[in-house]
Write a structure and sequence with these properties.
- It is a single chain.
- The chain has 115 residues and is mainly beta.
- It has one domain (20-114): Sandwich (Immunoglobulin-like).
- Helices cover 14% and strands 50% of the residues.
- It is built from one helix and seven strands.
- Strands 1, 2, 3, 4, 5, 6 and 7 form a seven-stranded mixed β-sheet that branches.
- β3 and β4 form a beta hairpin.
Length: 115
């Protein structure tokens, strides 16, 4: 009986304490080569988050950083759609940070290339 109770506590506790919102989808997709410049950056999360920062870095000799203005994205949301900055062909990294519903910082990146 003790093992059953312990197992149930572990199962329920792991579901309750894991409340960081995960990214479920990102565009441009990670490790994809595009023939045309994607028209937007889209991030989809499992729950509502506050988007804190997005940087777009061109991976070249000088690693050009393009900061994306988030002034119009102050509300928490599950989905954020941002216009793609004016970019040219090349390899890029998108670095993002968000505040999860439980107050933790979550972050990630996506790498893509435009031919």
């Amino acid at each position: 009986m003790f093992k059953i109770i312990l197992t149930l506590l572990f199962i329920f506790n792991s579901n309750i304490t894991y409340s960081h919102s995960q990214l479920t989808d990102i565009l441009p997709k990670d490790n994809i080569i595009y023939t045309k410049i994607p028209p937007k950056i889209e991030l989809t999360f499992r729950s509502k988050v506050k988007l804190i920062k997005i940087d777009l870095n061109q991976k070249s000799g000088e690693n050009k950083k393009i900061k994306i203005n988030l002034n119009s994205y102050k509300e928490r949301s599950k989905k954020f759609i941002l216009p793609m900055p004016n970019i040219t062909s090349g390899k890029y990294n998108i670095f993002w940070r968000a505040l999860s519903p439980d107050g933790h910082i979550i972050k990630g990146k996506s790498e893509f290339e435009v031919k």
